Automatic annotation (TrEMBL), chain A:
A UniProt-annotated Pfam family: Transketolase_C
Highest taxon of source: Bacteria
InterPro entries, per database record: THDP-binding (IPR029061), Transketo_C/PFOR_II (IPR009014), Transketolase-like_Pyr-bd (IPR005475), Transketolase_C (IPR033248)
Record protein name field: Alpha-ketoacid dehydrogenase subunit beta
One function term, GO molecular function aspect: oxidoreductase activity
Cofactor needs: thiamine diphosphate
Residue ranges occupied by any Transketolase-like pyrimidine-binding domain in the UniProt entry: 6-181
Organism: Natronosporangium hydrolyticum
Keywords: Oxidoreductase, Thiamine pyrophosphate
From TrEMBL, chain B:
GO molecular function term, any single one: magnesium ion binding
SUPFAM superfamilies: Thiamin diphosphate-binding fold (THDP-binding)
Residue ranges constituting the Dehydrogenase E1 component domain according to the UniProt record: 59-346
One Pfam family linked to the record: E1_dh
Cofactor field: thiamine diphosphate
Annotated protein name in UniProt: Pyruvate dehydrogenase (Acetyl-transferring) E1 component subunit alpha
Chain spans, region Disordered: 1-20
Species of the source: Natronosporangium hydrolyticum
Length: 329, 385
């Protein structure tokens, strides 16, 4: 055991470092990731130790970052691109959905694009506009991309390494408001089996209602479960971890026991990931459901001014309210 | 509209007809060989081909044009969904394509059938894409010729990243050095991606040649709708050389591209080559060029035909006789007939093939959909069809 108490941000940093040590083809590309170490310092110290040809400070253009990473990938490198903030990914959207996602398919398997696109996503840090968005549904809707999100330091440490080692192009969503939250990370555990990349995880067991969340909302769901306990309700919290492909096996199994389900995310509810999850759970667990699957999410507005974000973001009370409603049918 | 009704409109310049003093040319439209030519930086270009090599360039261009014509005919007969003809651009493509060394990597658009031919790829390959039986069937790494890219200009960035990888691999400046060529048209120069590629290539000093075939039109929009300055001059603002070459002159296209690639391989950074040419046909078989350009313009460019001028040169220099030209025409015809027969024989893909290669490591969702689809298809009498 080599357990370290790390913030999620530091766990990512260590995971990136380890990936670079393990494979000389791994390179980092992004704005301000070198000397500055990234605006969130996730790549802190990597350029100093691995050189500026492996940790590349790029010009300020997101399409260029992803587009050149594609060429590097064709050349045999494994680029890890940092998009500085969620709301800045859209200039790269064409390169991601039309090129990164489709080249393997288009070439009938001849070309692999093992790119990881790291995006600090979601709100809760009091930022200005374009700095707090949840663009996961755009990418999860695109065949050829995989989309994952970590929720705690252990997952951050392992999932980033697994994503980099994978030949699949992966959009890796980092819950930026959780960068500073700490947890014990077993940095010596064997990665592959103990922490599979594309598998949901039961974060807390319970019998009365299943709460599904990912990324920054896992913490909210867990807090809601703790609060619900005082009301005598045992919530089961499942961290989806992988948004495309979805691993809903544990959710089906859970909902068949609890009969109730609430899906939580920060993104607007309309056509969000929760819609897909609710539809599939309804299909698979129809005869076990005591009530409709409910969604708790952001409103169908642009992300509001930061003084309003506490109203916008799902919190413990809104999750508990939804749980209450599942008992009202 | 303002009351005066005299809104200034961009005008078609004279450059389209006469070329410019800065345009590198080694073979005039009437087939006269110019021994050496200089670009605006004073660099001198010439070519030193053997008789066989001259004849080989002619053969390439004739075959490429004939295959292109066959593909267009196949589209008109309903055998291809669409076709993007290269007619008029044979010299730019064969000249630049033959200038590539085997180790150089090319990133094409969807019109580079001539370059594809020069890379030794079976000419039927792009027809599968346009017939709809596949999405381009060649292995980009094996042939050093990437997949056709349909989104305008996207490949300029891929090429630049690949070139950065060459630098990273230490494959510049030595005996085993490599370079990249990125193809795009005049319309693509308006795209952000092409401009971003220029910036990246410049700041990372990438071993790349941007080869812009300025064929004067982006579908219906003339070059005046893309730029107010000659395209090759754009390069200066990004910090590298821009050279305009007569794109209907296979010798100059070869010489300029070869020099630019050598410069890249030596570690001297990127070059933009603007091959000044003309698309004789439609953008694709889906549009009608008579709506947006004059017959007189077409005739003007027909007089500058890249194949006719090389033929005149070969004849006048007695490098080839009628028997040679007849033989080339016949072998091109035979190649096109063979192409036709093979296209008509291309099988439709198996329906479940649509599920192949979505992800290198698979996906439970796609795998499940494949199983459901196959079971559903099999439930019909006669199986999957």
């Amino acid at each position: 055991m080599a357990t370290e108490n790390l913030t999620l941000g530091k766990a990512l940093n260590l995971g990136l470092r380890r990936a670079m040590e393990d494979d000389p083809k791994v390179i980092m590309m992004g704005e301000d990731i070198g000397k500055l170490g990234g605006v969130f310092r996730i790549t802190d110290g990597l350029q100093k130790d691995f050189g500026d040809d492996r940790v590349i400070d790029t010009p300020l253009a997101e399409s260029g970052i992803i587009g050149t990473a594609i060429g590097m990938a064709i050349r045999g490198y494994r680029p890890v691109c940092e998009i500085q903030f969620d709301g800045f990914v859209y200039p790269a959207y064409d390169q991601i959905v039309s090129q990164v996602a489709k080249m393997h398919y288009r070439s009938q398997g001849a070309v692999r694009i093992p790119i990881v696109i790291r995006i600090p996503f979601g709100g809760g840090i009091g930022a200005v506009e374009h700095h707090s968005e949840s663009p996961e549904a755009y990418f999860a809707h695109t065949a050829g991309l995989k989309v994952v999100s970590c929720a705690n330091p252990t997952d951050a440490y392992w999932m980033i390494q697994q994503a980099i080692a994978s030949d699949d192009p992966i959009v890796f969503l980092e819950p930026k408001r959780r960068y500073w939250e700490k947890g014990d990370v077993d940095t010596a555990a064997p990665a592959t089996d103990a922490y599979p990349l594309h598998a949901a995880r039961v974060a807390r067991s319970g019998t009365d209602c299943t709460v599904l969340a990912y990324g920054p909302m896992v913490r909210v769901a867990l807090d809601a479960a703790t609060a619900a306990e005082e009301d005598g309700r045992a919530l089961e919290v499942i961290d989806l971890r992988t948004l495309s492909p979805l691993d809903l096996g544990p959710a089906y199994e859970s909902v068949k026991r609890t009969g109730r389900c609430v899906v939580v995310h920060e993104a607007p509810v309309n056509l969000g990931l929760g819609s897909e999850v609710a539809a599939r759970i309804t299909e698979q667990c129809f005869y076990s459901l005591e009530s409709p699957v409910l969604r708790v999410g952001g409103f169908d507005t642009p992300y509001p001014a930061s003084r309003l974000e506490e109203e916008y973001l799902p919190d413990l009370d809104r999750v508990l309210d939804a749980v209450d409603r599942t008992f009202g049918w | 509209m303002g009351a005066t009704g005299t809104r200034a409109r961009p005008r078609r310049g004279k450059t389209a007809a006469g070329g410019t003093p800065e345009m590198v040319q080694l073979l005039t439209p009437d087939g006269k060989r110019i021994p050496t030519a200089r670009d605006s930086y004073g660099t001198e270009y010439t070519v030193d081909f053997t008789d066989d090599e001259y004849r080989g360039l002619y053969r390439d261009m004739v075959v490429v044009r004939r295959l292109d014509a066959e593909a267009e005919a196949l589209q008109r007969q309903g055998e291809l969904g669409i076709w993007a003809s290269l007619q008029g651009q044979e010299a730019a493509q064969v000249g630049s394509g033959r200038a590539l060394e085997p180790q150089d990597m090319a990133f094409p658009t969807y019109r580079e059938h001539g370059v594809l031919y020069c890379r030794g790829i079976d000419p039927i390959m792009p027809l599968g894409l346009f017939r709809g039986v596949d999405q381009g069937g060649w292995d980009p790494n094996k042939f050093k010729f990437n997949m056709y890219t349909i989104v305008i200009g996207a490949q300029a960035l891929h090429a630049t990243g690949y070139a950065m990888g060459i630098t990273q691999d230490g494959k510049v400046g030595g005996a085993d050095s490599e370079a990249v060529i990125a193809y795009f048209g005049d319309g693509a120069t308006s795209q952000g991606d092409v401009n971003e590629a220029f910036i990246w290539a410049s700041v990372y000093h990438a071993p790349i040649v941007f080869f812009c075939q300025n064929n004067q039109y982006a579908i219906s929009e003339p070059i005046e709708r893309q730029t107010r300055v000659p395209l090759y001059q754009r390069a200066g603002g990004f910090g590298f050389k821009g050279i305009r070459v007569d794109g209907n002159d296979v010798l100059a296209s070869y010489a300029v591209t070869k020099a630019a690639l050598e410069q890249a391989r030596r570690g001297e950074g990127p070059t933009l080559v603007e091959a000044y040419t003309y698309r004789m046909g439609a953008h694709t078989t889906s549009d009608d060029p008579t709506r947006y350009r004059l017959a007189s313009e077409l005739e003007e460019w027909r007089a500058k035909d890249p194949i006719a001028r090389l033929r005149t040169f070969l004849s006048e220099q007695q490098l080839a006789d009628e028997a040679f030209f007849t033989e080339v025409d016949e072998s091109a015809k035979a190649a096109s007939q063979e192409l036709r027969e093979r296209v008509l024989a291309l099988p439709d893909p198996a329906p479940s093939q649509m599920f192949d290669h979505v992800y290198p490591h698979g996906s439970p969702e796609v795998d499940a959909q494949r199983r459901e689809f196959e079971a559903y298809a099999a439930s019909f009498e006669g199986g999957a069809h």
